[in-house]
From TrEMBL:
Functional note: Catalyzes the release of premature peptidyl moieties from peptidyl-tRNA molecules trapped in stalled 50S ribosomal subunits, and thus maintains levels of free tRNAs and 50S ribosomes. Hydrolyzes ribosome-free peptidyl-tRNAs (with 1 or more amino acids incorporated), which drop off the ribosome during protein synthesis, or as a result of ribosome stalling.
Lineage summary: Bacteria, Pseudomonadati, Pseudomonadota, Betaproteobacteria, Burkholderiales
Site keyed Discriminates between blocked and unblocked aminoacyl-tRNA: positions: 13
EC number annotated for this UniProt entry: 3.1.1.29
Family from the record: Belongs to the PTH family.
Name of protein: Peptidyl-tRNA hydrolase
Length: 198
């Protein structure tokens, strides 16, 4: 029996200059999920994160946005997981994904980090790849026909039509959250993939 998600970590870079960039898609989704649970973020310096504490069907759910840069995201993820006595399987990481086009989103458990610095650091901090990931497609400069380097691409704002696609993917993620918080991963996955095809 897979335990339900209890800790959600949105990935992004802190500071107003990064707020609207593609690399912050995980933060955007975290903000919406906190709203859905009527939870407010407050700065918890000991965890190097903005933390929102909500409840779902009587159970505590923690949503966090690290205040460190992306490549140090594990500091918040590891600290929160240990403090709340959770296992990696109860952790969900929300992050931007170059290998998926804007508007596409995939849920997966485990696997590598595919060069994503935030995932790499979290995997090291949790000493396990067994956490869940919601991969929000932002596209790749090559598949989008851009000459930009990846580093510059992720730190730029998406074009208006890409943003619309990313926002619709975020809405689909919000719709499967109750299933994830109940531990119904099979249902969440099929619901998400149905929506991807729609």
């Amino acid at each position: 029996m897979t335990p339900p998600i209890r800790l959600v970590i949105g990935l992004g870079n802190p500071g107003p200059e990064y707020e609207a960039t593609r690399h912050n898609a995980g933060f955007w989704l975290a903000d919406h999920l906190a709203d859905d649970l009527k939870a407010d973020f407050s700065l918890e310096k000991s965890f190097s994160a903005w933390v929102a504490k909500g409840r779902f069907e009587g159970e505590a759910v923690i949503i966090a946005k690290p205040t460190t840069f992306m490549n140090r995201s594990g500091q918040a993820a590891g600290g929160l997981m240990r403090f709340y006595k959770l296992v990696p399987e109860q952790v969900l990481v929300l992050h931007d994904e170059l290998d998926l086009m804007p508007g596409n989103v995939k849920l997966k458990q485990g696997g590598g980090h595919a060069g994503h610095n935030g995932l790499r650091d979290i995997q090291a901090a949790l000493a396990s790849p067994a956490f869940w990931r919601l991969r929000l497609g932002i596209g790749h400069p090559r598949t989008l026909g851009l000459a930009q380097q990846v580093a510059a691409f992720v730190l730029n704002m998406p074009k208006r039509d890409e943003l619309k696609d990313i926002e619709s993917a975020i809405d689909r993620c919000r719709a499967i959250m109750p299933a994830l918080l109940r531990g119904e991963f099979q249902q969440a996955t099929s619901q998400l993939h149905e929506a991807n095809r729609a």
